[in-house]
Amino acid sequence: MFTTIQSNSFTRLRKVSIPGSIVETSVQRDTQVQETCLLMQCNRPNKVTGRCQSFQQTSDISGGIVYDSDRYRFLIHDTSTKCYRCREIAVRTINVLELRETECLTFGGNVVPDMTYLCGKLKGTKMDGNVERASWTTLFSQKPTRVSCRSSIEGSWTFKYSIQRYSQHKCLHPKNNLTSCPDPANRYSTEDRFYISYGACDDYAWKKGDPGLSFLRDMAMTFVCLGDWYIGNDHFFAAVNLGENRPEEQYRCFMENHDDDQYIGHSLAATCSTLLAPRVSPVMLHLFRAKTTTIAPSCSLPANFSGRWMNTAHAAVNSWIDINATHLLEKHRPDQRLAVETSFICQEQKGQRYMMARVGIGGCQVYYVCWHFLPRHHNIIRYRVGLAFATKDFRQVCSWSSFLQSRDWKYDLLIAQNPLPVECPIGGKFRFTQYGDVPLESRIRGGVTKSPRDQVECKQYETDLSVCSKQWRKQYDTRQILIDLDKCMTLDWHAKPIGEYDEPDHILHCIGYWRENARSFLVTYEKEDALSPFRCWVYNRIGYQRLLLSRGVASYCGIQQEPDSANLSYGASLALDLHENERLFDDCPLRFVDGSDPWIPIGQYGLLTSAAVLYRIASLFTVISNLSLHLFTVIFLKQEIWLGTVNRNDKK
User: Fold this and answer.
1) Less Cβ crowding at N or C end of the chain, within 10 Å?
2) Torsion region of 472: left, alpha or beta (phi above 0 gives left; psi -120 to 50 gives alpha)
């Protein structure tokens, strides 16, 4: 069946065939049906108009085809039979659509049926995970756009296969191989194709008379990826066979499960409706990882790099790197697939540049990349990675031109999994104003108390950010930042705070800071943060008593993020405007370190003195001055008395 979609009509060319084999079809006659679209609905209408955009495929800036929504419903009028049907189209990829529809119903007179009523008769109208696969018809683009296979399948495997219709026995043959790896030695190799080779097995020799069974001989097929999609935990991807010209033989659907990637099922026809589960498919492949290349290390990494680190290079994606003396093992999840592991082996080192051999767990080609590390400071390792090369040449791999960065770039970060708090680069007691897309919220850490507390009348509440030596019952020091959005600032007659029950809303542990691109950066750790325990901040002092802080989206800071950035367009989520708010007995001196040399201990910097210490010093000077004045007065009086006595004696 071929469907041509226009602005307000469908032209459907149906090929009627006689089923007699698995893949062969014999066309008897073709019929063309002209249908008119009366009404359209979609799951993502325009936010301004509230209406659905046209279903026509449009091109984006990069030249690819895009759709406004991924689910459409149409009220269709068949002009030939004067009946109505509801048709639903799911946009799976830019090359694959899936269609299902109701029976064509006739209503008396010229009555147009209600779309909600008619679409309620669709089969399997529950959530996507429970949709009846058999009710969908798959449509493939006749002029497909090639898509990278990395999100669909990547690696090299051997496999056993079985054909469900004839035998459940798994055929193991030395020629069985599935490879989805770009070949750097081939100038025509790209990431948009993969290769499958089948070896013939004797299990199917007794079906030689079946024209549809093509597994009686060795086969090697090249597929081009058309995109992938998920329905619940099931991962589907479509491909086109470059060795076929017949449409019914050209397109294939593949399926794997998110929780079990050892099995892949694929169809024997141009449809996805026959794929119910990877192990219950027309063709089932039981995969085994191909043996990867073993490479011996020939250099060593710095000793203080060993351990487990979180990598911020993959933005919001969780990525961890395990480092020992010679290897780096990176684990990350680039999409909804299972975690991808990549191993890097140290090959050659010069200064701070290390040439590493990159070996994928899937057994693809070995590449050589250059890692440029800066010396570790605090719980942070800053680095950048160059381009991948197929040749083992240090001068080429680690040349400065291999680090292709634009004018605006910065180092990526490795953050220790179990960081130790360090001295914060800022200090003092501040009142702040917050603004941004994700503001801080007041909360009760640890939950509400079991018994009510004594009522303390507080007449003034303010925001508070403190970095003090003895803060909150002396449990924290200048290595933590305490934030309270409604702190009681009322004092008693001794100028001491009465808010004895005040608890901070957020406790941030400082774990590293540095200066880069004329900006100061700070990384904090908060275990109770729901999005990411690690947060990156950009900070700066714009006055003697005023600071600006900007929080990144997660564990990384945006390239264009400034200390006053507050929205996602700059890679920030929150901005704080701090004003000093130290009281008499707070004992919380101002401190600011810009991080230009993070390897120097923060105690070697000159720090300002707190108001309490200044008050004590001033009081001491006052006492000394008063004592000096009294002593001078006493001496002066004694001198006057002595002079008077001498004068009287002289007169006598």
Assistant:
1) C
2) left
What Å distances lie between residue 26 and 16, 248, 252, CA to CA?
8, 11, 19
Q: Which residues of 416-436 are buried (b: 16+ CB within 10 A; e: fewer)?
A: beebebbbbbbbbbbbbebeb
- In eight-state DSSP terms, residue 510 is E
Backbone angles phi, psi at 346, to 5 degrees: -70, 130
SS3 627: helix
Helices within 590-610 (DSSP H only)? none
* Distance (Å, whole) CA 326 – CA 514: 27
What SS3 string covers 432-486? EEEECCCCCCCCCCCCCCCCCCCCCCCCCEEEEEEECCCECCCCECCCEEEEEEE
Residue type, 546: R
pLDDT of residue 216: 61
Q: Which among 221, 48, 246, 239 has a CA at the least distance from the CA of 151?
A: 239
C-alpha closest to that of 431 among 579, 564, 543, 576: 579
Q: How far apart are the C-alpha atoms of 228 and 226, rounded to whole Å?
A: 7
Q: Which ranges of 247-393 does DSSP label H, i.e. alpha helix?
A: 247-250
The 3-state DSSP class for residue 415 equals strand
258 vs 283: CA distance, rounded Å: 18
Strand partners, 321: 309, 330
CB of 536 closer than 8 Å to CB of 570: no
What distance in Å separates the CA atoms of residue 464 and residue 588, rounded to the nearest whole number?
A: 13
**Of 463, 475, 490, 480, nearest in space to 574 by CA:** 463
Q: Are 499 and 490 in contact (CB under 8 A)?
A: yes
Distance of CA 41 to the CA centre of its chain: 31
**Distances in Å between the alpha carbon of 456 and those of 452, 464, 522, 590?**
12, 19, 37, 30
Phi, psi of 203 (to 5 degrees): -65, -25
Q: What angle do CA 589, 594, 598 make, to 5 degrees?
A: 105
- Tokens standing for 457? 């009348």
With CA atoms as reference, report the closest residue to 139 among 276, 281, 2: 2
Round to whole Å and give the CA distance between 528 and 322: 24
Cβ contacts of 581 within 8 Å, gap of 6 or more: 429, 430, 431, 462, 464
Per-residue pLDDT tens over the stretch 262-315: 899 999 888 888 888 888 888 999 988 876 677 899 999 999 999 999 998 876
DSSP annotation string for 189-254: --SSEEEEEE---GGGGGGTT-TT--TTS-EEEEEEEEEEEEETTEEEEEEEETT--SHHHHEEEE
Q: Model's pTM, two decimal places?
A: 0.65
Residue length of the chain: 652
Report the C-alpha gap between 323 and 345 in whole angstroms: 10
Residue 191: pLDDT over 90:
no
Structure tokens at 292: 């990867």
Q: Which of 68, 71, 1 is nearest to 33 (CA)?
A: 1
Neighbours of 458 (CB within 10 A): 16
Strands (E), 269-339: 283-289, 307-311, 319-323, 327-332
* Alpha-helical segments (H) within 517-610: none
Measure the CA–CA gap between 492 and 457, rounded to whole angstroms. Answer: 11
Give the tens place of pLDDT for each residue, 50-65.
666 655 544 443 344 4
CA angle 216, 220, 223 (to 5 degrees): 125
Residue 369 pairs in a beta bridge with 356
Contact criterion met (CB below 8 Å) for 284 and 278: yes
